[in-house]
Amino acid sequence: MSLEIVTAYRKSNALFAFVDSKAPLYLSTQDGKTVEQISQLCNVYQDRFHRLLDYMETLNVLTKNDDRFYLTE
Question: How would DSSP label each residue in 23-70?
Protein backbone atom coordinates (compact mmCIF):
# COMPACT_ATOMS: atom_id res chain seq x y z
CA MET A 1 0.00 0.00 0.00
CA SER A 2 2.80 2.46 0.79
CA LEU A 3 4.24 1.90 -2.70
CA GLU A 4 0.88 2.88 -4.19
CA ILE A 5 0.87 6.07 -2.13
CA VAL A 6 4.40 6.95 -3.20
CA THR A 7 3.53 6.28 -6.85
CA ALA A 8 0.38 8.41 -6.63
CA TYR A 9 2.37 11.21 -4.97
CA ARG A 10 5.00 11.06 -7.71
CA LYS A 11 2.37 11.21 -10.46
CA SER A 12 0.61 14.10 -8.76
CA ASN A 13 3.82 16.11 -8.41
CA ALA A 14 4.83 15.43 -12.00
CA LEU A 15 1.43 16.47 -13.35
CA PHE A 16 1.53 19.63 -11.24
CA ALA A 17 5.03 20.50 -12.51
CA PHE A 18 3.95 19.87 -16.10
CA VAL A 19 0.89 22.12 -15.84
CA ASP A 20 2.75 24.74 -13.78
CA SER A 21 5.43 24.98 -16.50
CA LYS A 22 2.68 26.05 -18.93
CA ALA A 23 3.89 23.42 -21.43
CA PRO A 24 0.34 22.30 -22.29
CA LEU A 25 -0.32 25.78 -23.67
CA TYR A 26 2.43 25.33 -26.26
CA LEU A 27 1.59 21.77 -27.30
CA SER A 28 -1.19 20.33 -29.43
CA THR A 29 -2.19 17.03 -30.98
CA GLN A 30 -1.03 18.15 -34.45
CA ASP A 31 1.90 20.52 -33.90
CA GLY A 32 4.71 18.68 -32.11
CA LYS A 33 7.64 20.42 -30.50
CA THR A 34 11.12 19.25 -29.51
CA VAL A 35 12.34 19.34 -25.93
CA GLU A 36 14.55 22.29 -26.82
CA GLN A 37 11.62 24.28 -28.23
CA ILE A 38 9.34 23.54 -25.27
CA SER A 39 12.11 24.29 -22.75
CA GLN A 40 12.76 27.68 -24.32
CA LEU A 41 9.06 28.55 -24.41
CA CYS A 42 8.62 27.51 -20.77
CA ASN A 43 11.94 29.04 -19.65
CA VAL A 44 13.12 25.84 -17.93
CA TYR A 45 16.28 23.70 -18.01
CA GLN A 46 16.21 21.26 -20.88
CA ASP A 47 17.79 18.27 -19.06
CA ARG A 48 15.29 18.07 -16.24
CA PHE A 49 12.38 18.99 -18.44
CA HIS A 50 13.20 16.17 -20.84
CA ARG A 51 12.82 13.69 -17.97
CA LEU A 52 9.48 15.23 -17.05
CA LEU A 53 8.22 15.03 -20.64
CA ASP A 54 9.33 11.41 -20.89
CA TYR A 55 7.42 10.67 -17.68
CA MET A 56 4.34 12.42 -19.07
CA GLU A 57 4.64 10.08 -22.04
CA THR A 58 4.55 7.05 -19.72
CA LEU A 59 1.37 8.48 -18.16
CA ASN A 60 -0.15 8.87 -21.66
CA VAL A 61 -0.42 12.63 -21.29
CA LEU A 62 1.97 13.07 -24.23
CA THR A 63 3.02 11.09 -27.25
CA LYS A 64 6.44 11.26 -28.88
CA ASN A 65 7.25 10.90 -32.56
CA ASP A 66 10.60 11.75 -34.19
CA ASP A 67 11.86 13.63 -31.09
CA ARG A 68 8.70 15.77 -31.01
CA PHE A 69 6.14 15.74 -28.25
CA TYR A 70 2.38 16.02 -28.82
CA LEU A 71 -0.60 16.15 -26.49
CA THR A 72 -2.66 12.99 -26.51
CA GLU A 73 -6.29 13.18 -27.51
Answer: HHHH--SSS-B-HHHHHHHHT--HHHHHHHHHHHHHTTSEEEETTEEE
